[in-house]
Design brief:
With 307 residues, the protein is mainly beta. Helices cover 3% and strands 62% of the residues. The chain has 1 helix and 12 strands, in the order βββββββαβββββ. The chain has a 12-stranded antiparallel β-sheet with strand order 1-2-3-4-5-6-7-8-9-10-11-12. Strand 10 and strand 11 form a beta hairpin. It is extended and about 80 Å long. The termini are close together.
Length: 307
Amino acid sequence: RKVRSMTPPAQFGYRTGGVIDLTLRSPSQGEGGSASVYGGSRGTIQSGFDHAIALEGWELFASGSVLRSDQGTEGPTSARTPLHNRTEQGRGLFYLSRALDERTRLSFISGAAINNFQIANIPGRVPSYTAFGRSEFDSARLNGRQGERNIFNVLALQHSQDGYDAQIALFQRHSQTQYRPDYTGEVLFNGVASDVRRRSNAYGLQADSAWRVVPAHTIRMGVSVIADATLAQNRSILLPLDDSGAAQDDPFGITDRRSRTGWTWGAYIQDEWRIAEALTMNAGLRADYIDAYVKAGQVSPRVNLVW
């Protein structure tokens, strides 16, 4: 068990809310894999697999799962299974690694999560507007949907020699959330229907090193740079108003699109001091700078205890 102070070491930055240490199963621990299927109430069924294999010097691990359920989100009514609330979700992880020599290793990691949700309906609602020559619509048949997509790739080169460890990694991340409305129905009920998309494509490089100066002290340092291209887009169909403020049956479209590429730089240095067998202190300095919708920088001294 480790007890850590609330301040993370200098190597972690950018408003870090948590650190996950994930160790993948290596084929050296045993080749093979498993597959599973389970189901439950509300039309829930999930299948998954994982497999590890070593082939001609390469180590490969892959895992994935697919989920289908009629309970995608918390419903807006007290119904046990809300109307139009199905979800399909897929996730996958792929790891490929090879030792180039006794001290150097090349690794590639790729992961993806693609999730689709129906937006649950409330039956019995009455439209508030007239649009497209219609004044009636069955609210139980609204077809709003939301899709979420997250994909990342990491290519890393690691080297260790004479008390010195180093790693340099290139990485890419794609994230997108998009709401697709039921144009006719939502205009009739709300007076507006919007296709909303938020997207982020990030590319970066991170280099980290550790130098074991003496048994009790390890000096860690690193740098990173990230370019993040973001897009915020709304495509809306809405009703115009007359001079008295009443909505007119003459829908028109508006598109609001904004994009920007932001840059984030970071650097750190810290001393990992093993005061005792069960007590370690990390003392260091971190500097960060961001140039995006705002420009800001910060230098942060850090002191962290682990028991």
